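[audit] Reproducing an earlier prediction to check determinism. Same input, same settings, fresh worker. If the tokens differ from the archived copy the diff job will pick it up downstream; this log only records the rerun itself.
[audit] input (235 residues):
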Amino acid sequence: MPNRNILTQPRNQLLSAYPLGVLKDNPSVYLRGNDALGPNARDSTVFNRNGIYSGSIQYQQQSIFTSDPSTGFSCITNQAQLSVTLPFAKQSEYSLEGIFKLNDALHFGGLIKYGDLGTGSGIGVGGSYYNNAGTQLMGLNENIQVQLTGFFLTVGKWYHIVYVNTGGNYIIYVAGNPILTIAGTPCYFPTNTIYIGWGHDESTGRSPHASCSDFALYSYGLSSAQIATHALLAQ
């Protein structure tokens, strides 16, 4: 598939190798935290699917990248989020990729959700379950299916996290390594809105206080080799 993204990028996108690696694999949307001070986040692909910030957001936060440091944004209160609505819905295969950092261990909820309320799939964080505060990463597959990973995030540390849904199962990767594989679980394909942060969840209390520097959606399942390459570039 020809790459239509890289040659259209402004110079500030070339400061880090990670954006180039993401764009090379043709995401359907790619949002970076330094591309706006709000209320909009500019899509770095040729599709111009810009996101919208809402709630209490801190902009231009220190990110994981030393060469491009101010790409982070932080959701600091309940119901803060970045959202983007796509022109297509109910993808049977897709990948969600982001670089995240927890700012405290006192909250819980979705880090990335594709779809809202009871129709969402993605990645959350909590304690012994989705409704308890903590730092454990978990898979979200509609509100009735929460899978604990046994992987606990360290507060204040950046992580490269990927969720791959292949239509019949899903895999969660951290730093390029698979930490959870759910095979044969029905995947309830979501609506056409992606949320980073609160995500209009069933409970207003489900709002992790976290930071994000980069987020991408792909309309296909990323391979383990692609994810490993991206994780390496994100170090």
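[audit] rerun output stored. Observation attached for the diff report: The mean pLDDT is 78.
[audit] end
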